[in-house]
# Entry
Amino acid sequence: MMGTGRLKKKDDLHYRKGSTGTHYNCECCKNFIDNFEVHSIGGRLLAVEGRCRIMGMENSRRYRIRPDHRCDAQELDRSKCWWLK
Ligand code: SF4
# Structure
């Protein structure tokens, strides 16, 4: 069925629960967007949640990315984690 099941890219890149060292996680990654607006087909705003430029910027729930998770493609963005400076 379309739209169900886990996103293949999440498996390929081992998307998983993040580290206690938060700078290894999505929230500190260059590819993370924390305020992606999810719309219905009619254009109604349904939710604001995380997305990733590598995993895909789609409306489907399968693309949801959590800030406290991580994957093998994480690229540290120091501007997103001020405490490392
Ligand atoms: S590349 Fe990986 S670590 Fe970075 S935002 Fe996407 S899923 Fe998270």
Summary: The longest helix spans residues 8-12. The pocket of iron/sulfur cluster is lined by residues 15, 26, 29, 31-32, 52, 54-55, 65, 70-71, 73-74 (CB under 6 Å). The mean pLDDT is 93. Strands lie at 16-17, 32-39, 45-52, 69-70.
